[in-house]
Amino acid sequence: MADMPSSVDILEEGPREAFQIEPGPIATADKVALIDALSATGLKRIQVASFVNPKKVPGWADADAVVAGFAPAPGVAYQALYFNPQGLHRALAFRDRLTVVGSITLSASEAFSLRNLNRDRAGQLAAMREHVAVHREAGVPVTRLSIMASFGCNFSGDVPVRRVLDTVADGLAVADETGARIARLSLADSMGWETPVRTQALVGAVRERWPDLPLTLHLHDTRGMAIACAHVALKMGVASFDASVGGLGGCPFAAQPGAPGNIATEELVFLCEEMGIATGIDLDALIEAARLARRIVGHPLPSALVLGGGLAAMRRAAAGA
Amino acid sequence: MADMPSSVDILEEGPREAFQIEPGPIATADKVALIDALSATGLKRIQVASFVNPKKVPGWADADAVVAGFAPAPGVAYQALYFNPQGLHRALAFRDRLTVVGSITLSASEAFSLRNLNRDRAGQLAAMREHVAVHREAGVPVTRLSIMASFGCNFSGDVPVRRVLDTVADGLAVADETGARIARLSLADSMGWETPVRTQALVGAVRERWPDLPLTLHLHDTRGMAIACAHVALKMGVASFDASVGGLGGCPFAAQPGAPGNIATEELVFLCEEMGIATGIDLDALIEAARLARRIVGHPLPSALVLGGGLAAMRRAAAGA
Fold it and tell me: In the structure, what pLDDT confidence band is assigned to residue A256 with cuts at 50, 70 and 90?
């Protein structure tokens, strides 16, 4: 597992991330157009909507219409986000269009969980037991364990790696108790504390303790470190990332509004391809999708590559010259 | 040399980079205010102006007034850019305020040199012999060798590492012939082709051939890779970088206007400090200087960290809680 992967798997979260945070309103047709543009790039997994309370997240009041509206592309798995039984059942109404899989989600920082969800660790664990039970009743597998605040916390500061390990162990214990079979561990930098140093220490420690548990990183570019963290992780063999086209989305926990959100998908794809790691994604098509996203949201996006453009055309011209 | 450095040296090029490319006009007093803000952050070297033809670069028509106007801070070396004897002599008129040191500059891509300067390799070498002679007459040492297009070229594509090595050798030969004593080699990503893979290969090859020649990297964030390249270089022992506060400047050779320019100084400082590498720079003060720069140029800057803010205040609050 210590070698570089030969290919990576990317979950494109741009639509879901963007339309929950953009002030909008953004037309349902534009959301659908972005999803369809993304599914034509070679991306194999796209998170297309969030089934949440429209009073809290008005940008996703049209989640059902968006999910009903995109044109499913062969070989692409479409996902939706949800947090509670109502959301799960809204997703299941689209079982023919969505891949529905459950997650156990815990925060490595209790301070974050208390602020964000009003739950201490015991409360988190109880909620997750209930969450798995709801999935079991609905016949939906729970296969993913996600650890929020894995890189640090605005409220409790640096989170010791040991505490992340304890949180993973707690989540795996809940899975054991409830019969969930965890096939993937996602480490999320919920508040933009990631650095390459932290990434190396965290991935190394998790790997050492659970060498066979496949890892996903959910990186936030709040402080400009995402691509360096991804590079470190790729060199350590991490082969799965969440990402957001154009860097769409922003970070609700950044000190300032307008701070970048997830790592930009096209920058991650460019990095991988330059490292010789296959993505199966057409970078120029992805950059065009990011430009479509920019037109839809009506403001510049954090991605440098969207402005700079790829190298393929210049390489072709130079080779032909 | 293969170990991480304990400290790094940063040449802040933001003022010079910004005011040559911003459409402006920008008041001389604002340029001076930015320089003075930067000199209060702990930065030890600042490139404050460009002595160039005001018809070609109207943003630096006031270079003399800017250089006359800043308040020299103790321990800070101020530099100016110039390309020809007229520029050198304008800089020398401010010898009491500026550190004037010459460079031999060559392009690893002849295609770039032909397009940009209408000079082939022989023409470049002849021009550099003349350049050193002009410095000798003026009593100014030439101590730096800079290689443009060290990472790739928009016109000739990927530049073989071997060609960069040949160009360095050519430059060192000119130095030998002309009696210049080169104390530093600068590898510049003039057109935004850098990747971590290329950085590792290039730094490794240069190190192997000239193990005792100190290296500087001039990185461009055109495609979002600068921080990952800096991380790789730091781990290989590179201890000197050019950078630009806020990512000021842009890249005249990017496919699209508005593409980011140099690596953002505050992101480089954040990375170094998180790696345990001392910069001597107050990150929060530097972020404030970037925000001043943003107000002066009147548009968002590429740096994520300017939006995200540093971690120091949250760490202090968490420690006190």
Answer: low
Tell me whether B255 touches chain A (CB under 8 Å): yes
Which residues of A are marked as active site?
251
Is there a cis peptide before residue A25, judged by omega within 30 degrees of 0? yes
> Domain A101-243's class?
alpha beta
| Interface test with chain A among B227, B253, B291, by most A beta carbons within 10 Å | B227
Q: Collect all residues of chain B within an 8 Å Cβ-Cβ radius of residue A309.
A: 223, 254-256, 259
Look at the domain A1-100+244-251+263-321 and name its fold.
TIM Barrel (3.20.20)
Q: Are the Cβ atoms of B258 and A192 closer than 8 angstroms?
A: no
- Would you call B193 and A308 a contact, using CB atoms and an 8 Å cutoff? no
Residue-by-residue pLDDT tens, chain B, 321 positions: 458 999 999 999 999 999 999 988 999 999 999 999 999 999 999 999 999 999 999 999 999 999 999 999 999 999 999 999 999 999 999 999 999 999 999 999 999 999 988 999 999 999 999 999 999 999 999 999 999 999 999 999 999 999 999 999 999 999 999 999 999 999 999 999 999 999 999 999 999 999 999 999 999 999 999 999 999 999 999 999 999 999 999 777 766 667 788 999 999 999 999 999 999 999 999 999 999 999 999 998 999 999 889 999 999 999 986
Measured distance CA(A127)–CA(A233) in Å, rounded = 31
| A-chain residues near B158 (CB < 8 A) | 315, 318
Taking an 8 Å cut-off on Cβ atoms, the answer to whether A198 and B264 are in contact is no
Closest CB to B195: pick one of A274, A300, A309. A274
Instruction: Tell me the C-alpha distance between A190 and B210, whole Å.
Output: 44
**CATH number of B6-100+244-257+264-321: 3.20.20.140, 3.30.300.30, 3.50.50.60, 3.20.20.70?**
3.20.20.70
Contact of A234 with A215, CB cutoff 8 Å: no
A-facing residues of B in 160-199 (CB < 8 A) are 192-193, 195-198
Residues of A in contact with B198 (CB under 8 A): 274
> What is residue B116's predicted lDDT score, i.e. its pLDDT?
87
pLDDT in tens, A159-189: 999 999 999 999 999 999 999 999 999 999 9
Residue A158 forms contact with B (CB below 8 Å): yes
pTM of the model: 0.96
Q: Which residue of A has its CA nearest to B264?
A: A224
The alpha carbon dihedral of A187, A190, A194, A198 has a sign of: negative
Let me know if the fold of A1-100+244-251+263-321 is the same as that of A101-243.
Answer: yes
User: Is B251 among the catalytic positions?
Assistant: yes
CA torsion, points A147, A148, A154, A160, in degrees to nearest 10?
Answer: 0
Q: Contact A223/B311, CB-based, under 8 Å?
A: yes
- On whether the B103-243 domain is CATH 1.10.287.1490, my answer is no
Tokens encoding A133 = 């039970």
Q: Do B254 and A223 touch (CB under 8 A)?
A: no
Q: Which residue ranges make up each domain of chain A?
A: 1-100+244-251+263-321, 101-243
Q: Is A152 on the interface with B (CB under 8 A)?
A: yes
